[in-house]
Write a structure and sequence with these properties.
single chain, about 250 residues, mainly alpha, Methane Monooxygenase Hydroxylase, Chain G, domain 1, elongated, disordered N terminus, PhoU_dom, PhoU-like_sf, Phosphate transport system regulatory protein PhoU
Length: about 250
């Protein structure tokens, strides 16, 4: 059971983790017929592959969400909603399998770093799925076809660069590229600049309060997705070297 410090009640996050661990049903352990860790690497590879596959689904979904928004394609919103909820379901499966693997095999060294990275990154994928869904659902709240062309163009550039950061971060994790983190962080800084540029254009050209708020939220969603891309590169570096590189501003 996860506990808080002595004399303190567990935090909400700790209580949630404890409940999740309690809900995991441990399968019966068969009598060992070979090496104790037989099948460990295959199991680890499977959940890592599922992590990567789920993340790449969102790399494809984000441009579709932005296109749906800019072209008022309401039909695409439901498809994207289903796709992102499916990704979140896969995230829960990866998380459960990761905890089971941790409990059964007690990995160490590089295997432990890799598994810890998977368990942390699957949360980034889950949050990214929610953010992509928010972008798509904005289509139902604003008619982006009537926005100034300059803002539409900047939003397209912003989204394209965000996708680039996310894809490059995933590639770094998949290839175990421990040196990619600085490159990905530089790409993320360009996303931050586009966010500032978009918000400046919005302040100058948009007068409708609802549109102002929504565009501000969209800028935040895209910036956060890029931050999750940086997280992939950070964990790739940690998995390879055992050292943490403090870049970006990723928040819970």
């Amino acid at each position: 059971m996860v506990k808080g410090q002595a004399g303190q009640r567990p935090t909400r996050r700790e209580a949630s983790l404890a409940a999740r661990l309690r809900d995991i049903v441990m399968p019966p352990f068969p009598e060992p017929t070979g090496p104790v860790r037989a099948g460990f690497q295959e199991w680890l590879d499977e959940i890592d592959d599922e992590l990567i596959s789920s993340a790449l689904t969102l790399v494809d979904a984000l441009p579709r969400a932005v296109r749906a928004l800019l072209h008022a394609d309401h039909g695409a919103v439901d498809e994207l909603r289903v796709a992102t909820y499916d990704v979140q379901g896969r995230c829960r499966h990866v998380e459960e399998q990761g905890f089971l693997l941790l409990a059964r095999e007690a990995p160490v060294a590089g295997d432990l770093r890799r598994l810890v990275g998977i368990l942390r990154l699957i949360l980034s994928v889950d949050r990214t799925a929610a953010l992509v869904r928010h972008v798509a659902e904005a289509t139902d709240h604003v008619d982006a076809t009537r926005m100034p062309q300059e803002i539409r163009t900047t939003l397209e550039d912003f989204a394209a660069r965000t996708v680039e950061v996310l894809r490059r971060g995933i590639d770094a994790w998949r290839q175990r590229d421990g040196l990619a983190v600085h490159e990905v962080n530089q790409l993320d800084e360009s996303v931050d600049h586009l966010q500032v540029h978009l918000l400046a254009e919005v302040r100058e050209q948009v007068t409708d309060p609802a549109e102002l708020v929504l565009l501000g939220l969209l800028a935040r969603y895209l910036e956060r997705i890029a931050d999750h891309g940086v997280a992939f590169a950070q964990h790739a570096c940690f998995a390879v070297t055992g050292e943490r590189v403090d870049v970006g501003r990723l928040e819970p």
